Amino acid sequence: MRILPGAELTFPLQSCLLITQKNLEQRVHNIIIAEEASKANIITSCLQHSSVPNAAHLGISEIYVKKNAMLNFTMIHQWSENTLVRPRSAAEIDDGGIFVSNYVCMRPVRDVQMYPIAYCKGANSRVSFNSILYGHKNSQMDIGSKAVLRGKSSKAEMISRAIAREGSKMIIRGMIEGDSSECKGHLECRGLLMDDESLLQSIPELIAKKKGVEITHEAAVGKISEKEITYLMTRKLSREQAVSLIIRGFMDVGILGLPAALNSEIKSIIDASTEGA
What we know:
Helix content is 13%, strand content 52%. The chain has one domain (2-224). It has 3 helices and 18 strands.
């Protein structure tokens, strides 16, 4: 996929990968080029037909963001309880380029492991990795991202929201490497652990290689406040409705940096997935 120089796309580009064959190993190789001064939003959906119990998805993505280009790439996964998922992605960002990578996984999946990396090699280049994750019964999720800041005044931001329940195992990783004396980065992970059978682990890493690097992180794993539940129940909600409402609020789509219309659509997907949680 190539966005031509100077092109500004009002509506998002969309792609879809669908698995319809049992025991299929789906292999894809994506190349995306955002040419100089272009602006675009891409939404890609990867899903599995309800009649397919077992499958695997193996994907490679190369992304190039040229000078002063802006690319927002949102990936929504809807797999099944017996799917193995292994995406591998890397991005290269030139002077003044902006790359936003969003990952949303709200449906059951057996095992997913991903660790995309972005190289901010240009001056004033920026990258943002955002994840909204919902761990279902016995799901294994190892999700992370890495940013290497090499350009002058380059910046990185990583934000994750994760909920682990029903015996799911979730590892949330993040690494920011500062190779330029004027670079900045921030990593944030917030998680909710819903029961004693699940596991939620946050692994932030900061690496500074030059004097003057400014990179920070914060991580928090906790539970839903009983005070919040009680308050909502005084507003005539059942306990289940109160918990569901809190979860939907926690999965804040505002972190994805999408236009208002797309924000609304993604929010509807999340609301549907957490209904009755």
